[in-house]
Every structure is written in structure tokens, then in C-alpha cells.
Amino acid sequence: MIDFIFETNRLIVRRWRHSDLPSLKAVYGDKEAMKWVGDGQPITDDLCAEWLIVTNRNYKKYGYGMFAVELKSESRVIGFCGIVHPGGQEEAECKYAYLRQFWGQGIATEALAGLIGYGAKTHGIGRMIATTSPKNIASHRVLLKAGMVRGTLRKNEDGSFTQIFEFTASI
Q1: What angle do CA 108, 114, 118 make, to 5 degrees?
Q2: Could you give the CA distance from residue 17 to residue 5 in angstroms, rounded to a whole number?
Q3: For residue 170, is it within any domain?
Q4: What is the domain-level CATH number for residue 108?
Q5: What distance in Å separates the CA atoms of residue 125 and residue 121, rounded to the nearest whole number?
Q6: How many domains does the chain contain in total?
Q7: What are the distances in angstroms from CA 169 to CA 5, 13, 147?
Q8: For residues 106 and 161, what is the distance between their CA atoms, to the nearest angstrom?
Q9: Which domain holds residue 12?
Q10: Distances from the Cα of 87 to the Cαs of 84, 90, 91, 96, in angstroms?
Q11: pTM of this prediction?
């Protein structure tokens, strides 16, 4: 199976490998970084292994899922990005997370712009969303710079809110 997905000026984006589990834990196990992701809790070793299984299922079902992001200059995983359907939602949703030492360098924007192009061109995904905390201004900037537009503010069942961003492909 070919694991190369796309590349940008500085990055190589590829499918996950079993050997990526330590990198997955390093990124998603960072308590400070995870305050913006999911339930805000760092990932466990068991959940890392389970996520790899789910991601492989997504590759088979959709042809895409979460991907590893490597710096070309270092050939090591620095984070992850992907297109997913959390909870079986119909809309394709972009996700990403990186080691904190790589924040603020334009890497998330570069990878996300490439990911959006990949999803639209390779899989014909005409509309993608991304979801963030309304307070996660850094992610808002990434999403806007990568070509998404601010969408609605969705009220969640627990009374909190989620900011939606959208990308719609040009016809």
C-alpha cells in the first residue's frame, strides 16, 4: 500500500504506520495542547492503538482519514492532519494537531491548505468543515489562512459552543 498522500514546500503527508504510535502519543498526550481537542484530556496508550485501527478502517471506507505530517528537512513526524467523519457525521471534517515546538511556524496552515486541496481534487469533496472552540483564536487564524471561512456558532448539548469553519470548492 502506498502511504504517500501529498507534499508541500516543507512537509510530507502520509498514511499512519504502526511505528507512528510514539509520535501520536507525544502530540495527543500533551495536556497543554489537548485543552483544545475533544474532551481536553491527553490520549492514553490504549486509545492511540485504537485510533490507528479506526484510521485504517477510514482509509478502506473513504480512501482518507488521519495522516502523519513529516518535516522534509528532518524526516520525522511532527504532527497529524486529516479528513474524518466523527461519530459518522456526513460532512467531511478537517482535523490537525502538532507538537507544540512547531506551533507558530505556519506548518498547520501549510498542511491544512494541502489537505483541503487533496480532499477536493483527489476525493471530490466539495465541502469540508472544521470545528474549534470559540476561544481558540490561533486555530481560527490557521483555518482562515488555509482558505476556510467562518461559519455558524453551534450550541452543543452541554450548553457550550463550537465555532464552525467551512471550505466550499469552486465549481
Answers
A1: 140
A2: 13
A3: no
A4: 3.40.630.30
A5: 8
A6: 1
A7: 19, 21, 10
A8: 26
A9: 4-125
A10: 9, 9, 11, 17
A11: 0.93
